[in-house]
Design a protein that fits this description.
It is built from 9 helices and 6 strands. The chain is α/β, with parallel strands linked by helices.
């Protein structure tokens, strides 16, 4: 009988369990996946505390985008509980002043009632150009963001704006670490992942070709293969 690894999966901004559906399906033979809820708190630290309160005692941890920020905070709060770490399509730096102003503008729009999740205008920042005509994929992304909704979106944006620069704490990470990035990720480009991998001793950097920011949905099989290798290394 296979001893399955508890696997905590942390979604990003405006994402829910649909972000990780392909990996849950592909990895169930070696892992016990659990998708965290990061819609209820307005700080990265509070999100991390909630995940830790609800997660198994020891687990492998993977986070994408904002989920990667939460995963890094978990490593600061309770590194002894994490068996393995995977950071996907994310970064470790704090928001720039320009980025904070953009987020404030989006919050203001949402608070005025003009919130539609991810609109067709924003999809090109999430997906590889070749996937914008993939209607099942774009419909899935649009439906996912609508499910998360305005109130959670505002909380998450405030959490992202308030995050710290995590680079100084990366050297303390000692567990098996995978850093993964879609080659055409516009929101968190490859250079940010190269930086993270250079600061975590022994980290493995993997690039998913022909993929944008939502690599787990765009290239689910390729991402699952890399996560399987990470889980069994």
């Amino acid at each position: 009988m296979i001893n399955k690894t508890p696997l905590v999966l942390v979604p990003g901004l405006l994402c829910d369990a649909a972000l990780w559906r392909g990996q849950v399906d592909e990895l169930h033979d070696i892992a016990e996946p659990w998708v965290a809820d990061v819609t209820r708190d307005d700080s990265i630290a509070a999100m991390a505390r909630r995940v830790l309160a609800e997660a198994p005692p020891r687990f492998a941890l993977a986070g994408l985008s904002m989920g990667g920020y939460v995963a890094q905070e978990i490593m600061r709060q309770a590194p002894e509980r994490v068996m393995r770490l995977a950071l996907l399509d994310t970064g470790s730096r704090a928001d720039t002043p320009d980025a904070i102003e953009r987020r404030k503008g989006l919050i203001e729009l949402a608070e005025m009632g003009d919130f539609k999740g991810v609109t067709p205008r924003l999809l090109p920042t999430f997906l590889h150009p070749s996937r914008l005509t993939d209607k099942p994929l774009t419909d899935a992304v649009t439906a996912m963001t609508a499910r998360v909704g305005k109130d959670a979106f505002i909380r998450q944006q405030r959490a992202i704006m308030g995050r710290i620069d995590g680079r100084p704490s990366l050297a303390a990470i000692t567990c098996e670490t995978l850093v993964l990035c879609g080659r055409q990720d516009q929101l968190t480009p490859l250079a940010l992942h190269e930086e993270i991998a250079s600061l975590i001793k022994g980290a493995q950097l993997e690039i998913v070709e022909d993929s944008g920011h939502l690599s787990t949905m765009e290239r689910p099989w390729e991402v699952s293969v890399l996560l399987r290798q990470w889980l069994t290394a």
